[in-house]
Predict the 3D structure of the following.
Amino acid sequence: MSLNSASEDEVEQAKKLFWESQAKLAASMKGMTEEEEAALKQEQQEKYEQRVLALISDSVFFSVIIFSILWYFFANPFVAASYAFGATMGTAYSYGLAKYVQVLGGSVDDMDSVEGAGVGQARFAFLILLFVIVGKFRSQGLLEIPSIAGFFTYQLASLNQGLKQ
């Protein structure tokens, strides 16, 4: 019985310490001046922009590598061309997705934080455009599967960024 009571006391003590640390954190955030808050926001914005640039760069890098491999191994040049088209649309989609995420949490009071929101809202247009163009030019040789695989190349870049962090 005393063993169970000791374990309950430890849990209660841990909870108490957790909530005390949360209260200290909240108090320190309330104590920030507007200049400190703006500086912190600017620093976080710069970090985010660096990560977006790294994501787009990795997406382009993987696209070029896979395009080169497809160009070398497949006799049909439309396999590589279809992949390149899909990869271009996927990179554009990831840019739009990054713009959408950037404006999350923005408010009317801070118009700079919602700048570029239109691109983020239209990110699905790149996927729709991919299907429309592939459907339109299928008879000229554009292939569906390499185009769709190319579109999802941005996922490799996203995975790579996640593994780096």
The chain has a mean pLDDT of 83. DSSP finds seven helices and no strands in the chain. The first helix runs from residue 2 to 30. Helices lie at 2-30, 34-73, 77-103, 117-121, 124-136, 144-151, 153-164.
